[in-house]
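Section 3.1: Structural characterization of target chains.
Under the original work plan, the team committed to producing a structural model for every single-chain target entering the pipeline before any wet-lab resources were allocated. The record below documents one such target. The sequence was received from the expression subgroup and is listed exactly as submitted; it comprises 402 residues.
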Amino acid sequence: MEPIIEIRYNKERSLLKISCDGNVFDSSRIESLPPEQWIFPFFAKGIRWNGLYEELRSFAGSGSFGLHFDGDADSFEIIREAFVGTLVEPVNMSKTVTIVYHENPVATKVILDGRIWDAELILNRYIDEWIRPFQVSGISWDGIFQELKKAIGTDNYTIYFVGSRKYMGLLMENCPDTISIFYRNTQMVERTAQAKKTADTPVSAVPDAQPRPESKTPSRPAKSRWTDMAAGKTQFENSLTGRHIMTGFAVCSVVLLFLPFVKFTVVPVDPNMVIQADTSVVSGFEAIFGIPEIRIGMNRSVLAVIMLAAPLLIIASNYIGQLEKFRSRIAVAAPVCNIVFTVIALFDIKRIYYSFDYIDSQVRSKMILGARFILLLLVSVLTAVFGFIQYYAAKPGTAEQE
């Protein structure tokens, strides 16, 4: 009987152990090197290595021996190169097989060491057929266990079965003693597939044969980016950058109050009449505290004060600890109120100016919106958008329930 050499190799930890009939091979010359180097001869720093096959032939005392490898699949493929053209056929003792079986419709998928095994003969056959030998159109099938033995090179391997448990019993009744069979439920396969999807493993293809069961947990609605942000992808509530952005918009809103808010001019009622009239420019602050040109009656909009109070409140909530628990609500309410009361202030100022039309029936007032009014509204809208994001980021539980 030919000797059996066992190689145990841990790629991650660079651990190598070679033994034969209880004798351990001295692997100190190569234990720190990858398999790509020690399968071939080398000479380095006074150390001579004759290649894996020659060294193991001397160790076994014969050119014909069995070689059982226990390690990762990539290293096994490298080691096989060292025995091409010899009498030695390496066997990977870490072989695993995944069989996915579904009865309605009939579908069988066999995954062997990370690759889908080409077993077209049994793809659309029932399990009680391909467990046992059969012949069709001159092609022989020796049964699943013998066919896997021929593909793997050994009858010492592990099978993971995915499917109904009643079919698992059929495999166990016909299974040889050298083979291990374990059941793997569909949920476990799906989790494994998701975890290894980036590594392009065949497990990610398992749901193709086994229909994905409907989840009992309601799926999360993909209705907008706000829900994702609420889940933590962009958490402005706890982000210093987010607060600085909100503060920046609020400061812009205050600065824009110094610029012309709206313009008023006097035009004749009769289009054929020509008059010379000045244009009155009203800034945001004048709308709040009073228009100097108007000295009779009300010369300001009482509600316009919100245009100043809203951005100041946003700034204060971002940096004053006592307002922290109200920060998310202020981030939403303040800019929305700013938009609403900016429009109300515009109509208030328009009403005040148009009241002078009664003084002279030959002329009337005309309002001209400045670009700065549009810019003020735009900044307020942007502030409201960021406030809306911050509100959902501050309350992920609420966003998730929606």
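Residues 227 and 399 are 6 Å apart (CA to CA).
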